[in-house]
Amino acid sequence: MSAIRLLVLGAVRQHGRAHGYQVRNDLEFWGAHEWSNAKPGSIYHALKQMAKQGLLHAHEIAPSTAGGPPRTEYEVTEKGTEEYFGLLREALTTYDQKMDVLSAGIGFIVDLERAEAVELLNERVRGLEGWRSAVTDYYTPEDGPESIGHIGEIMNMWVHSADAGAEWTRGLISRIEGGAYTFAGEGGEPFVGVLAEGQENPYAS
Predict the structure, then answer these.
(1) Which residues in the chain show pLDDT less than 70?
(2) For residue range 159-192, what is the model confidence (pLDDT) as tens digits?
(3) Residue 149: count of CB within 10 angstroms of its CB
């Protein structure tokens, strides 16, 4: 799974309708160009591809007063919404998820209801614990990983990564259960992570 589809669908959805530069600006504002494959070329390609696939609807609006070509604004379709939530749930539950995909999932987690977010994160923890148990039961030498030379450090790295991932996820679950953040269906003002039209982006490339 690539993070770019989730990131682009989520960014367009937050605006309602957005053109390519707005999506690029938002993703750079989040630093996604540093921790994912959300580079300008990838973003514009994803917008066009998902429009062809029926996940986005492309609206051509009037050209700029400077006489440029018509600007295309994109809107998430019903099919795109289904794709978005499927990708979001997969990003949060898969125990061996790539870091950029997991990061994108966390960025949009508040689009879910609080109880579902907790349930999905608990599923991730169970996956991490199950993987760790299966691997260490089979591969860990009685005398420790050092007994098989530096190759044992590979197992050390993966086990520590699983432990750290599970610990961090449990902490997030605790914060969410404790009332942190505003989730879908709840009252109050949700956090707005998009830039207004014309607002300067201090992280723009």
Answers:
(1) 1, 62-69, 138-148, 190-199, 201-205
(2) 889 999 999 999 999 999 999 999 999 987 766 6
(3) 8
Q: Cα(148)–Cα(57) distance, rounded to whole angstroms?
A: 56
Please answer whether residues 55 and 82 qualify as being in contact, where contact means their C-beta atoms are separated by less than 8 angstroms: no
Residues recorded for the chain = 205
The predicted pLDDT at position 34 comes to 84
CA distance 150 to 88: 37
Measuring CA to CA, how many Å separate 47 from each of 6, 52, 57, 59, 62?
A: 11, 9, 10, 12, 19
Query: For residues 33 and 27, is the Cβ–Cβ distance under 8 A?
Result: yes
**Burial of residue 191, with CB atoms counted within 10 A of its CB: 0-12 exposed, 13-18 middle, 19 or more buried:** exposed
- Tens digits of per-residue pLDDT, 16-37? 999 898 899 889 888 888 888 8
Residue tagged 């995909």 (tokens): 101
